[in-house]
Structure formats: structure tokens, C-alpha cells
Amino acid sequence: MEPTSSSLAGKASDQSLAQGNWLDSYFGVSRRGSSVRTEILAGIATFLASMYIIVVNPAVLSDAGIPFSAALSATVLISFLSSLAMGLYARNPILVAPGMGMNALFTYTLVQGAGLSWEVALGCVFWSGVLFATLAMFNVRKAIIEAIPPSLRYAITCGIGLFITFIGFKNAGFITGSDATLVTLGNMDASMVTFFIGMMATAILVILRFNGALILGIALTTLLASPMGRLWGGDVVVEWSGLAAWPDFSAVMQVDIWGALRVAYLPFIFVMLFTNFFDALSCFMALSESADLKDKDGNPRNLKRSMTVDAFASMIAAPLGTSAAQTFIESGAGVAQGGRTGLVAVTIAFLFLPFLFLSPLLSLVPGIATAPALVLVGLFMLAPISKIEWSRFEQAFPAFLAIILMPLTYSITLGIAFGFLSFVLIKVFTGRLQDIKPAMWISAALSVVMLVTTH
């Protein structure tokens, strides 16, 4: 007997229901007050808010000498693998991808500033991931959290934000060098005008709360830049080289693991560890508060598993050919859409995967098109500045040094080093030795080593 259309529809419906029930059961979707549809839509929202990293991360890493297409492949692969692990293992609605602060530290401090090759710098990324994994497995986060004062943790995030903004202005030619004043406004040419229009358009899209405002801003600025060198002055910056191609894996396994094990590089490894560890912890805590993603003790849900995923993501990022991966605060976009489970992260992971084959299309994007995104990411990272206790000078001064010295010295590690050193010296000479925890003494000692060996 031939099956009727209604029976076929019924079977399809049963199959869909069974699939939904399996997802519900594994991720605990209904138990968290959500639905499979809501989780998938939340994953799309987070992806749109953060997909700018597919273009911006390779653009930054190419300044370190890693080929754009190879860095793009590494970015997509690590975003896919680590977000998938976050969803399946930690079961949290959080994206893990190469972080903006970490790629800036990698490119502009380790490679351009300290003169490391990008292969050795990847080795530093690897060892910071090993240390991160060790801390995550032994669950020593409480001791480390208590050692570093909150004001310095907030300051480091803010300082990296200012540094990234400065890089955005520099890459666009909006700010240039000057013998008289060190820096000055660039030439009022087609490139500057295009960047400024793109930056303002991106800011307006953010204000209007468009999903994917940064990636829309990048696309719009690329379109504005396409006539340059063709219809008006300036060099040609947008050139078509194709739609799709096989992934470029030329940076895979190029990491120099043993070359990174030099005493002079230990401060760099520590700074990467510190930055990634606290970024991850801050992100988990912020998202757990905003979406009530807490366990029965009031701590962020599955925190140990989430930190472990973040740590191993940093370890495998280096062999793949990119700077460390970390949790993205843009995950809040999906949480705001009602996402509550790991199904959100799994959805994000599979949305990244097709871009593995689109490097020729994405290489269309010029530096002036990614620059507005850098400027605005820097703004977003300045949010914690209001949490610093500016009325307490012993807290405010080290925080201020950390913030201001990062862009002025063009080095994240120098900002952190002088922030740590000034904090310890203030406590020593005001008779408050009990305020200095062991981890802070170690941090200050490593800062001295870095200053002596690299400057």
C-alpha cells in the first residue's frame, strides 16, 4: 500500500520532533527555559555580532608576517573547533575565537616590538595555553583572582582597548608620525575620507542596534573604498581575486615550540596567560550574571569545564597558525536573544565553517575597511574604566600607568609591567606588604626580567 501524503508528513514531523527531543535532552534546552529554535536563532545573533573576527584577525596577523589566507583558515578552524567544544563539553552558550587583545599583543608587541619571528611568537602562545590548561585543571583560579587587584584587571582591559583603537587609526592613515609632535593627523585624502565615513556609519549602525553592525560597517567601507585608484585619487586597495578557493594551511604546524623556551620570553608567555585567563573569567562571570547562567552555589555554570575549553583552545591555536583563542563578550548578543545552552555555541561553530573556503572573497577587504571595527572594539573594551576606584590614589595610579602606557609605548606588556611594578612599590613604601600576594610578587619579578632583557 502506497503511503499517503498525510502519513509522510506525520513521519517527517515525528522525525523532526525526535531530533528536537534529542537536542533538548542533551543540552537541557527546555530545562533552561528555552527551545531549540530560540537556541539556533541565538547562535545566529552571536555569529553576526562577532563574525568580523574572520576578516579582522587575519588582517592583524598579516602585519606579523603570517599570510592573510593562512591566518584566515586558522581563524575559522580554531573558532569552529573551540566553539564546538564549548557547546558539547562545557554546554555553555559562549563563542570562543581568536581575541582582539591577544592578536594585538602577538603582532605589535612580540613580533614588531620585541623582534620575535611569528613562529617563535606562536610558541609563546602555545606555552601560555599549557600553563592556562594547568591552572584550569587544578582549579586555582581563586588564588590568582585574589592576587591581582581588580583595578589593575580592569585597567589592562581598558589599556588594550586604547591600544587597539590607536592601531585602527594608524592602519587607516588617520594618525601618522611627526618629527615635531610624534603623532599628528594624516593627509586629508581619499583614504582618510573613506575611513571616516566608514567609521561614522559603523558607529551609527551600533547605536541603532543592528545585528552584525561591525561586519556591515566593514562591508560598507569596502564598497566605499572600491573606486579608489579608479574613479578618484589614491592607490587601488580593493581588487577581485576570486570567490572561493581551497583553504590555505601553510601556517599549520609552523609553531616553534622549543624556540619560545628562552628566559627572555617568559614575561611574554606570562602576559598572554594573564590576559587570556582574566578575559575568560571576566566574560564567564559577566554572562552568568546577565543571563543567570549559574550553578546551585551561585558560581558561573560549568566554569571549570569552560575554562578548560578556553585553555585548550589557546594551545591548539598555535599549531593551527593563529594567536590565542578566548571567550567573546559578544556572546551576550545570543544570550540577549534567549540563548541558554551549548546548542548556541554549536550553531556558531557550524556557521564559521563555510568561510574556510572564502579567503579570496574576504581578501577584498582593505585595511581602511577593518580599521573602523578596530576603533569601535577599542571603545567596547573601555567599558570597565568606570569600575576603577579613581578616588583611591594607590589603586588609581598603577591602573592609570597600565592604561596610558600601552598606546604610548606601543606595547601591551610594558603597560602591564609598569602597572604591576608601581602597585608593588607603592605597597612596599607605604608599609602594606600584607596586600601583596605571592602571585603579585612573581608578576613584578617577571616584569623586571622583561624590562632588563628586552630594553
TrEMBL record:
GO terms of molecular function: purine nucleobase transmembrane transporter activity
Membrane topology per record: Multi-pass membrane protein
Pfam family, one: Xan_ur_permease
GO cellular component term, pick one: plasma membrane
UniProt entry keywords in alphabetical sequence: Cell membrane, Membrane, Transmembrane, Transmembrane helix, Transport
TM regions (residue ranges): 40-60, 66-88, 95-114, 120-140, 152-175, 195-220, 263-287, 307-329, 341-358, 364-385, 397-426
Main location: membrane
Keyword match Transcription regulation: no
Signal sequence, renumbered to the chain: none
Places the protein is found: Cell membrane
InterPro entries, per the entry: Azg-like, Azg-like_bact_archaea, NCS2
Family listed: Belongs to the nucleobase:cation symporter-2 (NCS2) (TC 2.A.40) family. Azg-like subfamily.
Protein name in the entry: Permease
